[in-house]
Design goal:
The protein is mainly alpha-helical. The chain is 73% helix and 2% strand. The chain has one domain. It contains 17 helices and two strands. The protein has a two-stranded antiparallel ribbon. The termini are far apart.
Length: 426
């Protein structure tokens, strides 16, 4: 039980840090006319694809636009583009309103819409990379970046992302269904654990009439026992950091940084969420890096980790659906802005309850999709009709919860728009 609580706080801290990164990126983009213009230019191929090519010409489209037959039914169409925008809006509303990683639902949502798992992962990574480059938040945070820390960490991240990409591609070449089953299993485990912890955290907080911080609290300069033990290992070279926070700074062996980077890169390569949800808790709780240095360094690494993984492990092999990535980028920018405003008029405890529901809906979506995939590989024996029924239950449960949450948030925003305008004026 103690492990469950500790690991739950670890994951929630990561989800919160990832959401803060997303929110800052979105604010940076929408506040710049130049960046919005660039996004408009990036949409030109999408618009031209819709005007110039009918669905029956899908196979002649460039791979990035969705013209590869192996990815059926993910051909370019206005419908699939609108679905990608809706997915982006839903993820953005969760991120902006709840302050936790809405990106967790993107790959499950894409897979539910008929996109193969490996394409969903590659597209999600590319969307994160595009958002990171466009946001340029890194320029405002450079003062908090420990370059030696980030550089050594990225060595491991590159190795891990490569391994994750290779695993996904090898499984896909063996059997596309095996690839989907593997990605589905990974998401089921992660979303299941995080969702049940978020639910117990919500119920505990409601009972306590307020509870503590949903993201595990902010971490300062204090070190835990694990961090002290790791920093006491003097295996050279030692990487120094936090010189401005602690007299003389701190130092840690490069081995632990490389291993941590490898874990983050592996998660990014397999799941497509950029690995950002792991970096913050690993740096703060495991390595003993101050939260101030962690935030800046995390922003620095996610640009390179997501960029490396998306380009070298997915894009050059044709596993990125550019049209979907652009739709999700546009949708998430809109959703984050609305969600962030709604937090000003909705009780925090309510928001935490919705987060638990959203993550558990993602868990149900993936766990109910698994039997039919295992049956296709003849691992278990169930009828196609039963597998299809379970899959449809998972899809409907997921989209009803996320759709209902989205309608509630947007409705709350419209209902309180006058109040929000008055607050902005002050």
């Amino acid at each position: 039980m103690h492990f469950f609580k500790d690991w739950g706080r670890f994951m929630m801290a990561g989800a919160g840090a990832l959401a803060n990164w997303e929110i800052e990126n979105a604010k940076s983009i929408v506040s710049s006319k130049k960046k919005l213009m660039i996004i408009g230019l990036m949409l030109i191929p999408v618009i031209l694809g819709g005007i110039c090519f009918a669905d029956e010409l899908g196979p002649v489209l460039p791979t990035l636009l969705g013209g590869k037959k192996a990815y059926s039914p993910a051909f370019y169409s206005l419908g699939i583009f609108m679905v990608s925008i809706a997915i982006g809006v839903g993820a953005g509303l969760i991120t902006g309103c709840i302050g936790a990683g809405g990106g967790f639902i993107i790959a499950p949502a894409l897979m539910s819409a008929g996109i193969k798992g490996i394409l969903a992962v590659g597209t999600d990574l590319f969307h994160i990379f595009a958002k990171a480059i466009m946001g340029s938040v890194i320029h405002r945070k450079l003062g908090n970046v420990s370059v030696p820390l980030a550089a050594v960490f990225l060595i491991g991240a590159v190795l891990g992302a490569t391994a994750g990409g290779v695993i996904n591609r090898v499984l896909y070449e063996i059997n596309p269904v095996l690839s989907d089953a593997f990605i589905t299993t990974v998401y089921s485990l992660m979303l299941g654990f995080l969702g049940f912890y978020a639910l117990t955290d919500f119920l505990r907080s409601r009972k306590a009439a307020g509870g503590g911080d949903a993201h595990g609290g902010s971490e300062g300069a204090d070190l835990g026992a694990l961090s002290r033990n790791l920093q006491s290992v003097k295996f050279p070279p030692l990487i120094k950091f936090d010189q401005d926070l602690v007299p003389g700074g701190r130092q840690i062996s490069w081995v632990f940084l490389v291993l941590s980077g490898a874990l983050v890169g592996l998660a990014a390569g397999i799941m497509g969420v950029g690995g950002g949800f792991l970096t913050f808790p690993i740096f703060v709780y495991v390595l003993g890096v101050s939260s101030m240095t962690t935030v800046g360094t995390d922003i620095f690494q996610i640009v390179f980790t997501a960029g490396f993984a998306s380009i070298t492990q997915y894009a050059i092999y044709g596993f990125i659906f550019y049209t979907l990535a652009m739709g999700m980028l546009i949708g998430s920018l809109l959703g984050i802005q609305i969600g962030a405003l709604v937090t000003k008029v909705v009780p925090g405890i309510t928001i935490r309850g919705f987060y638990a529901m959203a993550v558990l809906a993602g868990f149900m979506n993936r766990i109910f999709a698994l039997p039919s995939k295992l049956a296709e590989m003849e691992v278990i024996s169930i009828s196609p009709a039963t597998g299809s029924l379970l899959n449809n239950i998972g899809i409907w449960a997921f989209f009803v919860v996320i759709g209902g949450f989205s309608v509630w948030v947007i409705g709350t925003f419209l209902k309180n728009i006058r109040t929000l305008k008055k607050e902005e004026a002050h």
